Every structure is written in C-alpha cells, then in structure tokens.
Amino acid sequence: MAGELKKAAMPKGHVPMLDLSARELRDRMAAGALQATDLVGACLERIAALEPEVQAWAWLDGGHALKQAEALDAQRRSGRPTGPLHGLPVALKDVIDTARMPTQNGTPLDEGRVPEADAALVTRLRAAGAIVIGKTVTAELAFLHPGKTRNPHDAARTPGGSSSGSAAAVAAGMVPLAVGTQTGGSVIRPAAFCGTVGFKPSFGAIPRTGVLNQSPSLDTIGVFARNIEDAALLAEVLFGFDANDRATVLAPPPRLHATAMTAPPVRPTLAFLRPPGWDRADADTKAALEELVEALGERCFETALPGIFDEAAEIRERINLAEMAKSYYSYEKRGRDRLSEEMRGALDRGKDIPARDYISALDWPDVLYAGLDEIFERCDAILAPAALGPAPEGHASTGDAIFNGLWTLCGTPAVTVPILQSETGLPIGAQLIGRRSDDARLLRTARWLEGSSPRRPTYDQAYHDLRGAGLFLGLSGDHAVAYPASRSGRRARSDCGAGAVGRVLHLVRHLIRA
Q1: Does residue 422 carry a catalytic annotation?
Q2: Mean pLDDT across 25-32
Q3: Which part of the chain is the Amidase domain (predicted)?
C-alpha cells in the first residue's frame, strides 16, 4: 500500500464498553447502569472478531456464559447482595478444573476430560459473582511446548507461555480479567510480551486445589488484568487458606484492593538490579530499563545480587524437573508417544536427578531469600526486567524465563507493569518484586509506578485519542502520516524518523488494514 492514503478505520472488534476497567464495569453493574448480559455480549462480540487471529481460547460456550450473566442480573434485581466481582467475565487457563466444563491441560491425553468439581479458586470466583466465560489455551501440561495462541500485537510473534491464552485474551480486550499459573515465568513473561499486567503472588497465597500439579514446590496461581487496580481486585478474591493445599497458611487475607488504591505514605524507593542473564537481554530492554531508572532519579538506586544467585536457575530447574517427573508419571505411562519431544526430554532429565540433589535443592529458596534482606531493607520493591526482550518472532518457543524463575524459586510476589516499549512499538514489561507476604504493598508500589509513567495506549484508546485530536492516519512509503480532518483538506504531515517511527507504524499496522 505504498503511497496509498487511507482514513483510519475503527479497530476490528472495537466495543466501547470494553474500554472501561473491570472495577468501572463492576460498579456500573452494581448500580444497575449496565447488565451482565450486555457485558458478556460485548466480550463475545470482541472474541468473534479477533479470535481467528489471536486463537486464545481452548473452550468457549457463549450461550452458557450468557446464562450465567442472566442469573446474576436476576440476583441484582431481586435486591440480594452482590459480590466483589459481580458480573465480570473471567477467563481461566485450561489447567484449572471447572465442573461440567472441559479442562484438557493442553494435551491430547486429556482430550474430552470434564471434571466433576470446580478448583478451589473457581469456587471462590463464583462466590464473588464472577462469570467463567471460558478456558484459555495453555502450553502442553503448562510446560514449554506452545499452544496455538498468537501475540495480539503481532501474530508472527509468541504471546509467551505457558499462560499464553490468558495473557492474550486480556491484551486483546476479549475479557477484562484472566487467571493463569506460574512455575517458572508463565505469568510474568506472557504479560510482558502481550502488554498486560501480570501478578504472581507470594508462593501459597492462592490455593492450587483442583489445578494441574506440575511442581508442588513452585506452582503458583497468578492473574492478568489491564491495570494494577483490576489485578488487585481479582487476586483479593482468590487469596486465602485451603486445608487441601499445604502451601497455604491459615491467616487473614490481605486487603489487596484497598491497599493498592491508597497513595504510598512516602514516595516509594526502588532497587534496580541486573539479574543473572542480563548479558543476554535485548538492547531495547536494556535501554528501556536504564531510561526508566534515570527518570526515577533519586527514588531508584542500583544494586547487585550476591554471587550465589547465579546458581538459582539451575536449582529451580532441578526442583521443577524432579517433581514433574513424578507428577506426570501417569501421562507418560498412558501415552509417552503422544507427549511432545520437549516434554519427553524434560521427564527423562527429571528421572535422572539423584534424590540427594533434589532434596538439597529444596533448601535453596530460603537461603536465597535471606540474601535479599539487605536489599529489601533499603527499598519498597526491586525493579528488574520481566523478559529478555519484546516477544520473539516465531511460535516454536514461548520465550526464556531467566528473569522470572529466580523469583518463583524465592517465593516472592512479582508483577509485570506494562509501561515500556521497544523501538518498534512492542511491549516491554518492567517487573517489580516484593517481600514474601507483602503482596498488598507491592501492588501499591506497582500502581504508583503505573501512574508515574506514560502508559502505552491500547489500540482502541489510541484510535479515540487521534480522532479526538481531529487526526486521521495514513501510510506514505516508509512514513506514518497524520492528517487533520479539516474542511480545507490541507495536510499537516508529521513524519517520524527511523527510531520514533516504530510506535506510530506499529499503531498504523493495526488501525489501517490493506
């Protein structure tokens, strides 16, 4: 389309209602200004428009979702109390059991599997008034072999994994909220690649009963949302003790949402560190993080991890593979030939790990965590990259979890804050890490950072911003061109050079269809 100029069209599948945050949608439904059926209908419309390209869903039944919405609307009209997630559609990674809904764990060995009972977290979602709209694509058995999902920003790139469908569904505006799991980097990394908030709480904060068991010492439930407030709203409902999950602790759940929404008593201080693997980071990631550190000024200091952390990736993998070989024994016995090459190789390596090495590895999380004390004494949160770079091209891999596995091993809460981007306009996530069990404070700090940094707009927001300024976009050769919608038709051209053109061209690619 070189030389051809077109007026920007409405982004495909745009539904104005879905520009609102989850909390705003919830409040409108509570006030009777919005029906849950209308919200679910809007989500289904968006899904129908974008799913052929994004492929985020493993199972979806629009009729069933609407019936859930109808029941919730009737509940509100009757005057009965409504829950904190009343009427909000939530997508679930397809490793989380849902009663009378398929849960197939991303493997043909579980094709057609329909659990009899909900996972503990699903029970909590339903009690809070959430609508389980469908199941999202996962990598095979929540490990490495990718599913069908594509990155909403560029279908030629990976969305990350293993919670690929959950991250992509939220990033594409199909749903306001989603749930995933992380054993290495399966929440933080796809959130970074797709440009959403991804929150991995402290280990044991959310019960895993009824969720695929891969590595009991590492498996953690996480959430996806478009902003920190919404992530806190969803996570708070899921937190709490479960007698069937020994990783959980009998303690009052934190007030995540209320705390996240308060201003910090003093301006937070962040500790920026270059974790093991920094030398492999993309130039865009290094530049973006260093510019952020510079912008934060005296509120951020640079530090380094003790040398012992260089062994963390190997230790985490040792625990993961040894426990996975045990947890997935039944899959291997039922159909090893139907498992991917990546899975077969991982199971073989897990079986070869000596018991003494596995048992000694279990001592490391507390040792490493103790090594963070000096850093946490000086800061409110640690700042680090969420991934090596923007989403890599191709779909053979879900990316590298080198910047995530360390914090999963330590059991600390972590959150992706999508405030950075590459020269070509792709999302780059900043990762914040907090002390164990200090999840509420971490979210408050993350919301402060979110509000302190210029956020990359969604395509729909960008469209409205441009139209509100009286602008249309077009392409002319290698340039993105902005034209005012003036009666005279006089053109005011705004050309961008090789560096800055990235963001505009990336936007144009989605707003203007050939």
Answers
A1: no
A2: 96
A3: 38-443
